[in-house]
Amino acid sequence: MVDHGARRARVNQLIDAEPRVVGGSPGSIGRLERLCTALTRVLPASGVGLSLLVEDNHGGTIAASNATSRALEELQFALGEGPCIDAYTSRRPVLVADLQAHGSARWPGYAPAAHDHGVRAVFAFPLQVGAARAGALDVYRDEPGPLSAESLNDAFTFADVAMDVLVDSQNGDEGSKARADLDDVLAYRVEVYQAQGMVMVDLGVSIDEAMARIRGYAYAENQSIGDVARDIISGKIRLDKDTHEL
Amino acid sequence: MNSDAGIRPEDGWGGGTAMIAVEQLAEVFVELADTLVDEFDVIEFLETLATHTATVSAAASAGLLLADPHGQLQYMASSTESVKLLELFQLQYQEGPCLDCYRMGEPVINTDLNEADDRWPLFAPRASEAGFQSVHAFPLRHRSKVIGALNLFSRDAGRLEGTDVRIVQALADVATIGLLQERAIRNSEVLTEQLQAALNSRIVIEQAKGALARMHGIDVDAAFALMRDYARSKNHRLSDVAHGVVTDPSSHEDLTARR
User: Fold this and answer.
1) Do A131 and B192 touch (CB under 8 A)?
2) Strand partners, B67
3) Enclosing H/E stretch for A110
4) Nearest Cβ partner of B220 from A152, A185, A194?
5) Percentage of residues in chain A with pLDDT exceeding 70?
6) Which of A20, A41, A221, A228 is most deeply packed, by most CB within 10 A?
7) Is residue B176 part of a domain?
8) Could you tell me if B159 and B168 are in contact, meaning their C-beta atoms sit under 8 angstroms apart?
9) Can you give the residue range of the structural domain that contains B105?
């Protein structure tokens, strides 16, 4: 069994290995674009797009593997419906292995339009950690059929890494280099989530900013996130309002 | 086993000890069915199930783990705090009855912790220290796929046999049905969607526990009890309350206002 940390590390390596496009975006957005193209190769898929959303389902596309995927992302916002919006709203993945058979009733506007773009299957993965959520990662395929267990696994890991990039970008970290993965053993994750809630109250910030602060602290102190979380819970450390940001 | 007799004393715990009481079991199924209303809360459902499983099986405690999309088990629910810690211990050290049960897809039953040091060199002594003598784990299955495990801990060496084993497995199956929210789920996509939603709900609850702990200067377990009591008294879903606590504390002022 490959652990979660190792999976994330592998995904970061794949993104690093992804060629930089001439004229590609710098910083976090550039990294997310390469994340999209890397996932396209790994699955494989005909395209991958990543959009950010806010509460009232407005949003925008931040990265895509190609122009068609970008158009498919934007289409959802133009029509106000689609798998990405549903994944965000329902806080769960939306996996549609046969868009023609199962998409039309659900998305009367989006499904036929996506079909015209050659999409036969679409899989949307929410970018979220508990109550913190940013948007969704969409995978498009030009033939119907489910993702294999391994492909699903990869897609979930890419979504987790995308969330990391977005959270870290709040710390002013432009994602120019891959982070050594600081997540440690899974058992401590319960504590990581509890610590996020604590820092949220301690600093009077949102839950996603609390996540960013914990990660930023872990990087700065070169500690694992699990260790930092345990110290926050035990009261050994308390992040300050003016904790130095990276 | 006589098919006409249902649950018989001789099918119960070995050594003539208690067996699963039919009346009690009937109540459990009725209460679980009541929980499975349209907008039920999956975490509350699993906590209720863990608590009842412990009661009917005469086990001291029960815990429930679910597999995430990476095939890693994650903590979901338990009847008592000491079992939660043992579940987390198994996850941390990737060793123990739940892990074995999940990997093999078979129940692990009647394991005497005093004789399990070879099998689980880290877990067995830890569970013994916590006051448990025997342990069982039952798979949560959906068709051929194992999606999690239900763990029972006993303070005595009482054995689960015959009908008891089938009843606890039936409770594990009820957990699966509750998770899937439909009896005949259409495809594995829906299963993945539901599992992910359940796993994320648990994360929201942990975040809310942390927030409430700091708001009131209490520990996370007291924070959980506070939140659960509040949700019950207001007839809200636990997950909705937890989400409100994290995203908009003013939406539940009775719970979140600092005293």
Assistant:
1) no
2) B73
3) helix A110-116
4) A194
5) 89
6) A228
7) yes
8) no
9) 9-183
| Residues A72 and A136 grouped into a single domain | yes
> Tell me, what's the pLDDT at B192?
87
Test mutation, A96, A153, A186, chain B, max B CBs within 10 A: A186
What is the domain count for chain B? 2
Q: What are phi and psi of A122, to 5 degrees?
A: -140, 140
A148 shares contact with chain B (CB less than 8 Å):
no
Regarding whether B178 and B211 lie in a shared domain, the answer is no
What average pLDDT score do residues A63-88 get? Answer: 94
Give the position of tokens 């506070």. Answer: B226
Distance from CA of B17 to the nearest CA of A (A): 36
Domain with A103, as residue range(s), is 4-169
Residues 215-234 of A with CB under 8 A from B: 233
Q: Do B247 and A94 touch (CB under 8 A)?
A: no
What pLDDT is recorded for position B19? 58
Portion of chain B with pLDDT greater than 70, in percent: 88
**A201, B89: Cβ pair inside 8 Å?**
no
3-state secondary structure of B138: strand
**Residues B155 and B131 sit within 8 Å (Cβ to Cβ):** yes
